[in-house]
Every structure is written in structure tokens, then in C-alpha cells.
């Protein structure tokens, strides 16, 4: 009986699992995307790295990957699971809302980038069919890397999703186009095959849409009744595999079927459970794919041809970034959004490798040419996280400039407005309520990313560090209507209350407190109101539990008020206060804020309206 250690596939699996177990937590510890780590593992441990030394050092066979082709099926499964998970986050209604971006901007981006790259390659001596194949291949962007970084709900994510959807659909026509212009077959036969595939694929997709809506809810309902996670997982994987096989059998890409399966399940009430239960498989399989990408890079070839490779990578990135950003800007996107999306999608794609293989098989390009551009693609995929960071920083600066000034003086500070310091979830909620009641406000935040995002959403916000006295002076608090402190920094909030109370004795100061002890410190420092978030959250939870258990509302409210009186006295004792502090309930018996609760003390009835 042979030992498992004599099986290369078994050893490769151990190396991959070990890499995932080390890379993911290690890179997360330093807040670096594990994407780079997996690609570096492929470069270091692959056949072109330490794997090439197995003949000299036999022990390397236990820590390196010897056969890239053996793990490619797992990499393809990773892409399929990734597209399936993307489909789960979407809906047909949302896709329909993106139709203009998908079929206008997406098509224009692919064709324009492809034709520009093809023209440059043709001028450099590549034959016309080969230049067209390379141009279309390099114009594709990475669905596997871009969407996990951009998401699908932000403006950048929606733009990227729309263009990537068109590219995923366009893969099959591109491959058949390359086959149609191949010197090995006649053009008529190639176009006939393309039309037949698109017709058959369209029929299969329509059939899947009809059957999916009728069958999937019943299948998952039966699986859910068993209360067996294993069966639920098996049904989910079965749906993914069948959908992928159905589209692959017609000549379409299997990722189209995976995306469609995710869309169909997203329309059911089981999409949340399916997303959670398939998440670990998607992450591991995606890691395998990224390792295979790293294996495409031969360090020796990179060193020998570094100048040509750098020129090629920079050229492709520049063309795609400029074309994508310009088209998005022309379509009405904000300058920052267009720039960030353009830079994010500037690198080639994993599907570029598929199109390069098709172009080589069609005899449009030489194998040596394909190998060169495979390395360019692998390098482009490796630097995608860096491009994402770079694009985000550029977009942030553009948003700051477009807001009307530098990061420290964007908006004028008006009299009789509420100043909100801190714009996290609490600050944003307060701002929304002030807007609802036609109250002017200005938000101040130290996180530049939060400022840029809030400004894109239309909030009046400025960047500033309120720990500096100069920044507090600029806020003209002597003319403000109220000051609200929502940041979760207990020491800083107490310091600000002390400073402001010394400067403006009559200004209402409402502060978020972490607990009772912090609330006592804030009252002692001069806060008008301090709301202990832990206390109020506990009281509201208790109220909800008692009401759901059938206790009458009257006794519940009485108990809540009694507890609040107890805590009020505790805060008075903690802070050595002369008067009992104010602890206003943020909810009525119906759980909604009253008008009195939302207005700071010290405002007249006229000001309250």
C-alpha cells in the first residue's frame, strides 16, 4: 500500500491548505488583503519557484507545488463559487436598474480598450488578427478580484459590477470570434458555430429562469425542513454544479450558469442561509485560483525581460484606466467615482488567460507571445490590490477638492446650526433626524474616508481634528445652536466638553457616553445631556422583552422609569454632582422618539419648531 506522501496531488493539497491557514490570518493581522499572499505563494512555491529545485532537494516536494494543471480544476471551481456568491448579492430588479451601464458603458469600455490596445500592438508589428485577440483579452478585468474589494452596493461597486457583467457575457462571443478569424477554419463555419451556441445558450438560460422560479423554492423548503446543514449544503452545491454544467454544455461559460443560479436563489427567502453555508468553500477555492495565477509568473523570465514587462503592464493599465474613467464620467458618474473605478479595473483578468489560450489554439498568436502576456496578466492581477488603494486615495483627494477647498476648510460655518462632532452610525442618524425636522447642522469627522463617503451622499460635513483648539475655534460654537458629541473616544469627549463649557457657558452640549461612569464625567465637565449607550440600550431591550412576554405596558414603563431614577442617582454620586443629571428616555411606549426627547434642553418652544 502506497503512502499518501507519495501522491503529488495529496502533497499539493496539503501545501494549499497550509498556505490558506497561514496567509489569511497573517495578512489580516497587518490589514493586508490575502489576495497578494496567495499570489506570492504561487510564485514562491510553484513549478517556476522552489518547485523547480525538487530534483536537487527532495525534501522540497513536501512544501512546494509540482503540478499546476492538477489544481486548475479547483481554481475554476473557485471562480464558479465566487460568481455564484455575487449572484446571491444581486436581484433581477437591481440588474435591470444597471442595464444602461451594462450594455452601454460596459460594451463601450470593452470595445474601446480592446481596439486601442490592438492598434498599438499592430503598430508594433503584431499581425492584425493576433493584435485583435490580444486587445480583447487584455481589455477584460478581473471579476474575482475587483468585486470582493469594491463590493456591489457603493457607486464604484455598481459601476464595476455593470462592466464586469458585460465582460463575463462577452467571453463566449470573443472566443468564437477568435475561432471564426482563425486561419485553421473557414470564417463561415465559425460564425455558424457562434450563432448556434448563442441561440442554444439563450434557450437554456430562459429554461433555467422558468424552472428555477418554480422548482428552487420547493427544493430548498424540503431541505430546510430536515434541519440538516449538510443536506442544505449539498442542495446548494448541486444547484451550482447543474447550472454551470447546463451553460457549459451549450458552449457558454460555466460562470454564466453560476451567476444565474445565484440570482435565482437570491429571489428566494433562503439566500441568506445559502450565502453563509457556501462562504468557506468560496474563500478556499478562490485562494487556490490565486495560487495558480502566481504559478504563471517565472521569476527568471521576469528578470530577463523586466523592461518589456514593466512597459506592457504600465501601458495596459494606463489605457484601461483612462478609457474606463472617461466613459464613466461621460455617463454621469462623479469624478472621484469614475477615477477610482477606472484605476480599480485597469489590470487584466483571470479570463484574459482563457482568451489567450483560445487565441493560441486558433493560431492567431505564437506560444511565446502568449507566454509573455500570461506573465503580464499575472503581474497585473498581483498589483490589483495596490491599484485599488491608489485609485481610492486619488478619488478621495478629488472629492475633497470638488467639495470646495482643502481637507481642513471645505464648508462655511453658519450661525444657529447644530455642530455634530463624529459621523459614524450615531452621528449619521442624528443628522438624518435633524434634516427631517428642517434643522441646520454641520458634521465634523477626522476619518477622511468617512468624510469623502458622506460628501458623496450629500451630507454637509468637513474634515477636522477637534482635539486641536484651532479647529474648535473655527466651528464658531458661540453662535451654534447646540453641540453634539457622538465619537467613541471617552477621554477626548470629556476634554472637549470642558473646553467648550469654559468658552460658551450657555451652549447646549449633548454627548454620547460609553457607560454610567463616563456619563458622570461628562456631566461633571459641563455636559447638558449625557446618554449612556449601554444603559439606554439595556433599558430598551428589557422593555421589549417584557412587552413580548405579555407584561402590561403600564408596569413596564413604570419599571423602566424606576430603573432610570436609580441610575440617575448613581451618576450623581459617581460625579459628585449637586443636582441629579437628566436621563431622558429615547423611546416612548411605542418605541419612537418624542419631540421633547430629540430637542436639547435650553431651547425655546419657538426654536424647537
From TrEMBL:
Coiled-coil region(s): none
Topology relative to the membrane: Multi-pass membrane protein
Region (Disordered): 574-609
Ranges where the RCK N-terminal domain occurs: 415-532
Regions that span the bilayer: 6-28, 35-54, 74-92, 101-124, 130-147, 159-185, 197-216, 228-249, 309-331, 371-391
Compartment list: Membrane
Membrane in keyword set: yes
Chain intervals with Basic and acidic residues compositional bias: 574-583
Keyword ATP-binding: no
Cross-referenced PANTHER family: K(+) EFFLUX ANTIPORTER 3, CHLOROPLASTIC
Name of the protein this chain belongs to: Cation:proton antiporter
UniProt organism field: Parasphingorhabdus flavimaris
